Amino acid sequence: MNLALKDIRHSLFRFVLTCFGLGLLMTVVLAMIGIYNGLVADALAIVKAPEAELWVVEAGTQGPFAEASSIPADTRDAVARLPGIAASGAITYQTLETESAGKALRLYVIGYETGRLGGPSHLIAGREIGTSHFEAVADRKTGLVPGDTIRLGRDRFTVVGLTEEAMNSGGDPAIFVTLADAIALQTEIAPAAERVRAARGATPPSANNVAAVIARLEPDADVELVAATIRQWKHLSALSQSDQENLLLASVVDRARRQIGLFLGILLSVSAVVIALIIYTMTMEKLKQIATLKLIGAPDRTILGLIVQQALILGGSGWGIGLTLILLVKDNFPRRVLLEPMNAAVLAGIIVVVCLVASGLGIRAALKVDPATALGG
Amino acid sequence: MAIGDLLIDVQQVAKHYGEGETRVDALREVNLQVHAGEVIALLGPSGSGKTTLLNIIGCIVAPSTGRVELDGEPVFDGHWLRGDLRKLRLDKIGFIFQAHNLLPFLTAEENVSVVLDLAGQSQAVGKARARELLDYLEVGHRAPVKPSHLSGGEAQRVAIARALANRPRIILADEPTAALDSKRAQLVMDLLRKLAAEQEACIVTVTHDEKIFDRFDRLIHLRDGRLEDAGA
Q1: Residue B12 included in any domain
Q2: Which SUPFAM superfamilies does the record cross-reference, listed alphabetically (chain B) (predicted)?
Q3: Is B127 inside a domain boundary?
Q4: Distances from the Cα of A260 to the Cαs of A39, A42, A319, in angstroms?
């Protein structure tokens, strides 16, 4: 006879309600894990998308994500000619705000040379850019669809294709345009301060500069060797793909990542306390029944089983409800919620441990109950 | 009444709590023998030691000194002679409580069969025995009902069935008729007497209920932890 299940069935509504409450808490925990992963994945997505192995940037900078970088666009020709380089492409990045369907839309504009490295990694609708000007491929989170037009700077661009998971570390969705359009856009939308500077007679920024040149290497090429060669050009610096990823995580998203990580830690601690409190209260409410069971001869393992099984069922149900809810609503979050199976498994493991520890408190109280308390009404 | 086996043999049992100035003597050199078929009552004012004596016989509280033998087996002689007191209770002792203490999440039938389940009997055996006892106690039709839907008398009869489930030879009852009217109280006592005779068991009851005194073979009076009188 399974006393734990019988007791649950006896007060099913209350138990389900408790599980649901715990499930909501688990939803928040899973959402935070997902947001944490999403933040890291979003930040890295833009670095990983071109599938480059080498980033050539302005000397003395850690561009183009951690710091601004500006190098001549023809650097790409020089890099392409180096031994060990299989493919290369010049690329620009800039954030701008425009309007779409009457609403403000922040976009991360990526300029790339069509047919070279740096374009969208894959398309989910439409086609790639086929003309030299005024066509764009947008991330689906922009809300745009192929055929839509959108004003960038002074010109109107037609969306010809859609990609996904292309955004900057701030979560702004990306829009890909040709390098020529992107360079034009850089000067067209120069801030007022830049124009004042130009009016004073200062040297205007080069109209043919890009943020970086990315390169893919031949299979037998040594990335460090090629990078060292590039660094010999004093106006350039070279970073490997892993350097770029580490730099991005360490300098751009590190604070946000630690903030969310800390909040996640607090949330997990709160969840542990709540689970412990629920299980302890459930046990304390049953002390008289436990005393009766002990008096009629129930061994400790029966009492232990009653508490531990209920704790695990409660934790398991809360986890299941939490996982189901977050999978249902995760796409409605403004930022990407990225949940890996491993995250859910680790949370399940944590819940099992918390339930067992929490059961320990209840078991301690239950085992201390004097069977004599069952006597005397 | 024919005298049966000696089922409870309490010899020179004393129990005190605390030491020195705070010492309280709950029982002082109590001797008590109860035989199979006997139904006895422990009487006395509050604090006289009757519950302590019941707890000692029920192997819930250890005496300070003395010797206790249950169903021919020595269980206490200065210390417990068995480590598994719960198993001892499960096998030899049935308890009937003042407030019946049925488990609210089990049906009447399950409240009875749970004892056999704890004793390692199969579900079928437990169910059959529970049905048999509930039918015998005329509450068989209430077998699938939870305790919250039973009347006071029905709940008490289910509690009696639970106490008898594992065929114990010693039944300890703490104010078993306190929650019942006088007619039901006498019916319950008649039933306990009948069961004691049929199962060759003894019943030790703590009670204040004067209406049922005539249903006992002996009335044992306790005052200040001493046995005052043992008379029919």
Answers
A1: no
A2: P-loop containing nucleoside triphosphate hydrolases
A3: yes
A4: 9, 15, 21
